[in-house]
Description:
Order of helices and strands: HHHHHHHHHH
Largest sheet: none
Helix content: over 70%
Shape: flat
Number of helices: 10
Amino acid sequence: MNAFMTWLENQLAENSIFTLQTLSYYGDGLTTTVQLVFLSLVIGLIAAVPLAIGRGSKHAWIKWPIFAYTYVFRGTPLLIQLYLIYYGVVFVDGIQETWLWVILEEPFVPALIAFTLNTAAYTTEIFRGAIKSTSKGEIEAARAYGMSPQQTMRRIIIPSAFRRALPAYGNEVIFMLHASAIASVVTIMDLTGAARFVYARFYAPFDAFLFVAAIYLCLTFTILYFFRYLEKKLLAHLQPQNS
């Protein structure tokens, strides 16, 4: 590791912008971006599954509140949601005297809440559509085997819906990665925040932002490759058979 750092330092010796210190800013920003996107996607996915099931409920008191939640969060910009949660939490009476303030005063937490609520709304609708498109034949076959509605949902509908939702969910993951660039507006030093810092220090917008664009591009193609691999494995039965 030391030999690599020495080699890298020698390669960057004549570069006034990209030094080891500058690259460490991008490294820290990359770590923050990956943590923010990964955590919001995992929590949002866990929340979206029961919400998607509830969204298709026959009971109005279950499905309409979920519909209102997804409608609001999909119909408003993520930046506005982030501002409301980050700046609005200060105005909640008495919150600064509770233990919650210790957590919420860190900008990472309000950003995580905003991103999670946003991606959970989109993911809920993605899975709701996938659940709704389950063929009647699969459900009737499950009933013929004597499965209860809960068993049918757990063993047949949910796994089948996961596979069908995979292409749309892959797009949602890429959308969240790109949307995470706005996290820097609430003082989070993510990838975009690191680029803004380098730009402000060296007044070199093209170098700073083209470098961070290349990092986002690499992350995007990595996610694309991962989901294409999953689709190839899990949706192989839907591919046309070679004669």
